[in-house]
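JOB MANIFEST
job_type = single_chain_structure
chain_count = 1
residues = 68
[input]
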Amino acid sequence: MLPNDRKVGEAILWVFKNHELLKLYNKNTIYYLLKERTGLETKEITYSLSRFKSFYRVFKINFLNKNK
């Protein structure tokens, strides 16, 4: 996992934990918040999110195969 991935992951967890306070359900607003919390550019955030998405697919397939 890259350092930028870790920053984005921690920022996403913070958003999930505080979603009731933030009331943010707009993609642009969430990207702005992630940019503020991580100090990264949108391109770097998008790259990390795509890596998370690929990790999720692998974990999901493994989980479903184990629980059949």
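[summary]
The helical segments are 3-17, 19-22, 27-38, 42-66.
Residues 1 and 51 are 9 Å apart (CA to CA).
exit_status = 0
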